[in-house]
Amino acid sequence: MTAAAPEPKVNMGQPVPRYDAAAKVTGRATYASDMPLDNPAFAFLVTSAIAKGRIDGFDLDDAKRVRGVIDIVTHENAPKLKESKLFSNGGYAGTTIQPLKSADIAHDGQIIAVVVAESYEAAREAANRVKVSYTATAPSATFDSPGTTTAAAKGQSAQFKEDPEVGDFAKAFDTAEVKLTASYETPTQHHNPMELFSTSCVWMGDNLVIYEGSQFVYGLKNGVAEQLGIDADKVRVVNPYVGGGFGSRGSMTPRTAIIAGIAKRLNRPIKLVPTRDQGFTITTHRAETRHEIKLGASRDGKLLALRHEGAEVSSRPDAYCVGGTKTTARLYACPNVASLVSIVRADRNTPGFMRSPPEVPYLFALESAMDELAVKLNMDPVELRRINDTTNEPIGGKPYSSRSLMACFDEAAKAFGWAQRSPQPKSMSDGEWLIGYGCAATCYPTQMAPSAARVRLQRDGRTRVEIAGHEIGTGAYTVIAQTATERLGVPLEKVAVFMGDSDLPPAPVAGGSNSTASTCSAVMMVCDQIRQRLFKAVMPDSLTDKAKETVGISQAPATQAAKSDRPLDIEKAFNALGVGVVEEYGEWKPEGAPLDSFKAMHSGQVRIVGGHAMKDQIAYAFGAEFVEVRINRFTHEIRCPRLVGAFAGGRIMNPRTARSQLMGGLIWGMSSALLEATEIDERNARYVNDNLADYLVPVNADVPGVEVIMLSEQDDHINPAGVKGLGELANVGTNAAICNAIHHATGQRIRKLPVRLENIEV
Amino acid sequence: MPDKSSSKQSAFDRRAFMAGAAGSALVPITARAAAEEARAPVAQDPSLPVDVTLRVNGKDKRLSIDARTTVLDALRDHLKLTGSKKGCDHGQCGACTVLIDDRRVVSCLTLALAAEGQEITTIEGLATDDRLHPMQQAFVDNDAFQCGYCTPGQIMSAVACVKEGHAGSEADIREYMSGNICRCAAYPNIVAAVKQAAPEIMKG
């Protein structure tokens, strides 16, 4: 067994290789822009050179002279599209800024024209020959820019219902023996999945097929149908493979309906492959944030008062916010908590989900502050977490369904060698390298959403699972195949999984780490429906209540057997049934899901439940992360030779795919501390490093040592699959752990990300 | 760039094309500044189709394409070999890596015309007789990918990395595989895969 396939512990599935491994290593896996099209025309976008103002006019003569140009679409001749509301307001869109609707410009890089030509080369050349005259006004770029407005998130954002609070923060903070007040900042970031934001649209009569990498095919299908004013049944979104999502493909962007509309008008398949730099402005981003944390504690380290104030930048029309105080207010035992989230409106595109949207910025603040408090208390930061560990969240007093935070700290500390740390800053070095050890907690809400599935079992054991889930790199095909294998007792190689197609039974958005819990719970349920039919054929279901009581069961034998782990004799059952194929469809919804869940599921509306919003409990996955940083005392170069994380996420469906996801998460976390930031030219409200050379993401040489430890954890209170979700757990807290390690190495506390060598003062 | 022009390009003046294409090569950077002045006039209309024969995975492929077509777009849009991926079109990410005469090359920055007469190997040409190449098998064994979009480029790069003699240590592998970005960050597994496959590839 390789390191990539860890031995399963209790409540873990088998580390089987990925279902889609062969397709992915041979180039046979087809992503959106790989789909064969019959005689396509190629589209190339023209985007705005100003962030605020109006288009006065276009000079298209030069562009039209390029051989092969078919059409140039601007707001003056664009297909008429209906508006779509923001996903959080009952719509599908990630932004309500609709390009090509008028001459108005709302943000830099907004789509202002689409050139369509016979070849990609001609479209690109003509796009560059489009001349635009603007009347520009001074834009407001970000925090502190003149012209921005700031208001509390509560009351204006459908995503943010309340600022969590409990007790009397002001009084408790006033009288606390030890106090800390500190401010933190995190930068704008862009997902930059490897696959570009391609869209191909093909009409067949009144029916539209869209090939686009999406994390939510039902949302995209319904959203585009709404914008085009056609029946959603006429739209199909296909993407069997998605080249990374990280949140960027969760909600609909304006480009899709635009391309669909042009394809309809030209009566020709259209292929759009936007450039990497266009991807920075035609989709969403992680907004920059600011925080102030106040902590009051007793001398022995007990938290008595906690206040977290956060501010986030959004666009003029949309009150997008992540509001991570819902998590930071509940992470530790503390009787007096206050919080406030504000939204700053600027002349930017609407931000959106990016891997662990609330937790990455908000836990950076809290977990940095906890380390600062430990230093003030002269206490080991792990012990400070232990003292403030809790079984119930402090705001509503609800119990955590399970919480392995300190077990994670202990396992990771042991593997890391935390005991060898000398606590004093600047006390460890190796030649010209200052060494620092740091740690932080991570957590992520356990979330679920309604999902459907169809499963077909043949007499020879061949099984077909259909679900409109999404393979964005998480291992979705693999864990769904494993679920069917486990419930039906058929060999893995006989299971075929079909996903990434909105003609299949609906699955939720692949976001909020809800996919495995939701889709596997649905597939389990439908497999059990098949088991029940088969058991009914071979087991008497006609026992009277009296007889059931005698044999000590509450349900009919077939029902009982279907839900148990009792093996199924498929051959015998098929003989008894006298059929060749058994097929079942089912719709599953998590406990606490709203009444309209199934209707919403079919119309592409998100109904995620879980986390802190559950009725009688609160459900989170936990982890602890330890890092070593090395800082060159002469050049100030920062290296991160070791990242160690221990995680508990309920049932681990496949330790191989889980480890990979957590490992990638840890590297993302390192990146959010040391590399990633989209730099804004504040005069022009424009991104200046909008490419993969200047927007720094980790490369292989950046990550020498990563160790992932998965704890065995069983939680029967969350969902039938017992899964908490891992996709967004590991990249939370890492940024704080690194800054805490930098403090240990240098004595310097850095509160603004990313940390670059010019920020180090040794 | 080695000049291996052949008689098939009789209708095409490479020098004139290069002079004219200097402007369009800047296109991705200035696309948003469309209000800028038009570029210098094109010396020879590059959109006139040019005949070219590419040798891909051991087979000659005849194409009539826009002279500005890159190897990547020729493979993807004209030869239906979509294994090589477009991740940046700037030579920054490595997703489009192919082998040209056994050298690893970012095919998005290589014009198809410039690759004529050379041996192009893509991810589709690596496996033989339904048997995975040792590097492909090593990527499977070590779970060296997640979304899979960068994987064809990583594998082509990894094969060359080994043959260049740059797979002698983990540090070497990390350094010489750093031209290929994996946003899912499967990096430690990629290093393990290259390490596993190296001896078998060196054996031949």
Brief rundown of the structure:
The complex is a heterodimer of chains A (762) and B (204). Chain A is an alpha+beta fold and 762 residues long. Chain A is 26% helix and 23% strand.
Helices, strands, pairings?
The complex is a heterodimer of chains A (about 750) and B (about 200).
Chain A: H1 21-26, E1 41-47, E2 53-59, H2 61-64, E3 69-73, E4 104-105, E5 111-117, H3 120-128, E6 131-136, E7 149-152, H4 169-175, E8 178-186, E9 199-204, E10 207-212, H5 217-228, E11 235-238, H6 255-266, E12 270-272, H7 276-282, E13 289-297, E14 303-314, H8 325-328, E15 336-345, H9 359-377, H10 381-387, H11 405-416, E16 429-430, E17 433-445, E18 447-448, E19 451-458, E20 463-466, H12 476-488, E21 495-498, H13 515-538, H14 545-551, H15 557-563, H16 570-577, E22 581-588, H17 597-602, E23 609-610, E24 620-632, E25 638-648, H18 655-674, E26 680-681, E27 686-687, E28 705-710, H19 734-746
Parallel strand pairs in A: 1-12, 10-11, 14-15, 20-21, 25-28
Antiparallel strand pairs in A: 1-5, 2-4, 2-6, 3-5, 7-15, 8-13, 9-10, 9-12, 13-14, 16-17, 17-24, 18-23, 19-20, 19-22, 24-25, 26-27
Helix pairs in contact in A: 5-6, 9-19, 12-13, 13-15, 13-16, 18-19
Chain B: H1 14-24, H2 27-30, E1 49-56, E2 59-66, H3 71-78, E3 97-100, E4 103-106, E5 119-121, H4 134-141, H5 151-163, H6 170-176, H7 187-203
Parallel strand pairs in B: 1-5
Antiparallel strand pairs in B: 1-2, 3-4, 3-5
